[in-house]
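User: quick one
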Amino acid sequence: MSESRPDPARDPWIALRGLTHARIGLGRAGDALAGADVRALQAAHAAARRAVHAALDPARLSLAEPFLEVRSRAPDRGVFVRRPDLGRRLCPLDAARLPQAPCDVLFVIADGLSALAAARQAPGVLEAARASLPGWSIGPLIVAHNARVALGDEIGTLVGARCVVMMIGERPGLSAADSLSLYLTWDPKVGRMDSERNCLSNIHAHGGMAHDEAAFRLAWLLRGARTLGRSGVALKDDSMTARLPPPTP
Amino acid sequence: MVFYATLQGERYRFDDLRTLLARASPLRSGDELIGVAAADPVERVAAREALANVPLRAFLNEAVIPFEQCDVTRLVVERHDAASFAPIAHMTVGQWRDWLLGYEADEAALAAIARGLTPEMVSAVSKLMRNQDLIAVARKVRVVTAFRNTQGLKGRLGARLQPNHPTDDARGIAAALLDGLLLGAGDAVLGINPATDSIETGMVLVHMLDEIRRRYDIPTQSCVLTHITNTLAMIERGAPVDLVFQSIAGTQRANESFGVSLALLDEAHQAARSLRRGSVGENVMYFETGQGAAISADAHFGVDQQTLEVRAYAVAREYAPLLVNTVVGFIGPEYLYDGKQIIRAGLEDHFCGKLMGLPMGCDVCYTNHAEADQDDSDDLMMLLAAAGVNFLIAVPGGDDVMLNYQSLSYHDILTVRSVYGTAPAPEFERWLQRMALLDGRRRLNANAPLALPGFLDE
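Assistant: Done. Structure below.
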């Protein structure tokens, strides 16, 4: 007996599927899901799992500039997911090695929960962001392993940055395993609260925010933070009302 | 009070009840995160030995979180019913564990002691129980509640239909809702987690759910799971609110971080009851909880996460809820690391909630950074059904596209119902029959969208 597959031309769910990317109108085998639908979910989950456990290999990022690598106190991915506190602090050896290099903005490419996101999105966003920030002094590029968002606070303090931008992989979902977030923290120091940061999320190529768009909004937030002298809930992202025409694709 | 145990030639000391409970708790990453877990498996078993010898009365004399610092502790003390406690007042925790499993502890006996139990007693005894014990005792407890149908009856298994959408698009939600109804889900509640905090969006969704429910005369209740203050605002604006939802936790400070207080819960409970929208019952509250909530709010007082979870149930039982569920694998691997921890926690939460007298359900779920997959969810789903869980949560294909985690699918609910021979709430099952969604043997037909005609018409 062959596996039952719906005839797409007779699929009564076709119109409804356009309304949501939720997995509606799936096939059945008795009470259970049809085998093809079970495997489709397994495939998406496998991709998400791979993204969570992947290592960030900076040699494969094709970065146009030199970079410094640092590690958090979480020695491996297993500890990293269990101990967010360790992912927020630098391992002492790397903390001692970081150079003082006062600057306006420091960019950190961080694996977070998806090294895949950092690898796929961060170089493009970084290039676009540099072009959007004329007149800003930009510090040495940092690549951070087993990093949570707050790791940027310690990095920023040691380097002497006025502002740190963490470009960090988000927790993978089934629809996008390579989604990046940008977290901007003005005057970074250990102990900053999440309410003192601004975030741009969902930067990916499956209907998420494009690299140029992310860079444009980041530059808008950075100028706002500089004017206010701080980031966080006091700084609202009104970049949408101050938009430039969209860049040509 | 200090507790001691000697095991394998080594003497262990536990400084107070809070520490003893934490050390006796099964291994979980959240307790390791805050540094209260046992140092090794031997210390854990030594703690259980000491805990088994603690008289239940000791729990009435020592609070794990000071009375002065936490209104949940005060609530527990004020509500403790000495008469209900009397049948077990002479026992130690270890003796009580054996009593719970005994033949004399039947449905009536367990119901009779519920108001005499404190969360810490219930947490303590669960730590002396294996997974099969948690199932065997929980299945003796029956908690029946009602609004537009009756939940928790013998031979029944409810399902919350969760048709979330990442931008709260009403038609996208309606499509996922239709999918679930055609697969027989939704008797526990038609419940949407909105993506935004907006009251306007909440109003649109509440009206949409109510309109669909009335159009097809579905004997069920709807809920938009927004913050309780938003729901109160919607009630004031005349919205057709069936159930009031709120996430709650086991300490005053954690509840404050959720923006909720006992007074606010009282106010919302009264407001929803005053609408008199239930047809077969008046249970109007819906609570969600989950181990790790108080830790993630930095409001744990050094208490283990499972004990904190049971304290949340002491809050819930104050409001005679229609539904309570733990969202067991949602918060992440820093609290429940893998499938083993998630499964154990799900069984504990269900057992403890039922013993406290709550209509416990469960969101059997996991995130992509936990060491778990759909097989672990299958295991927990089957075990909870064996334990007599009131309801489970289901989303299209098991993939929640708004909250980005995996729950059960509508199909999973069909499978578990057929494995155990259970059915949805009787009023809802009759509706499924009336709409010709079931065949003559109570099985679900292959229902095309037109089985509920006009669902998505403008």
